[in-house]
Amino acid sequence: MTRSRALAGTRGLVVPLLLLAAWELATRYHLVNVRLLVRPSLVLGTFVRELEQGELLSQIAASVVRDLGGAALGSAVGILIGTLMGVSRLWDRLLGSSFHAAKQVAIFAWIPLMTVWIGNGEPAKVVFIALAAFYPVVLNTFEGIRSVAPEFVEVARVFRFSRWQVFRGVILPGALPSILAGIQLGLVYSWLATIGAEYLLAAGPGIGNLMIDGREAFQMDKVLVGIVLVGLVGSGISAFAAAIGSWQLRWRPATAVDQF
Description:
Layout: H1 2-11, H2 14-28, H3 40-53, H4 55-87, H5 89-102, H6 111-117, H7 122-146, H8 150-158, H9 163-200, H10 207-216, H11 220-248
Helix pairs in contact: 3-11, 4-5, 4-7, 4-9, 4-10, 7-9, 8-9, 9-10, 9-11, 10-11
């Protein structure tokens, strides 16, 4: 079993390795403009140099802290709003229409309004990131609560559970897989929003700032270092969230897909 899992894990490296080989061949034989797409070895050298200077770690840390702060804020508010809409028809009628209308607005369209209300500094970045995490968490929390089988609630009422006991012992466990999936999606969207906020709002420490500096100095190796870091850090955050979700749901029986 362990060997088969290890083999399955290595399959995910096939496409990245093929792309890396194509990148190396294209730049080595000048099939592309090497000023715009530099060789992987040069990108690696820039990465090592930035790492030795200590600047790279501080840029990564700034982006991750900003991302997690915004994601935590957006997820907390999203769970609250999604729970209210899920357990109460009244709150669903009061908030549902406005929420579904607001989520149709592209998230980047809120930036002009945010800069007027909050400015374009760190608070605006965190709010922007929180907004990106907010929508998927609300939707998944709402859908998770509404998908709990009514029969479970009826059984709890037969045993004279209070409303809080029904929510804590029946509704919340039943909705937890969907809520955790929403948080994982929120982390993915918030990371994308983090890079967008670093690009579009005031300059500050972060991976986005590293890429902007490379673009302005026409140092494409630094830009590509930033792009690779965005992918790696985003993948790490997503994998961490998936691992936490799997640990929280370890009580569930394995599905057919898990055994496939």
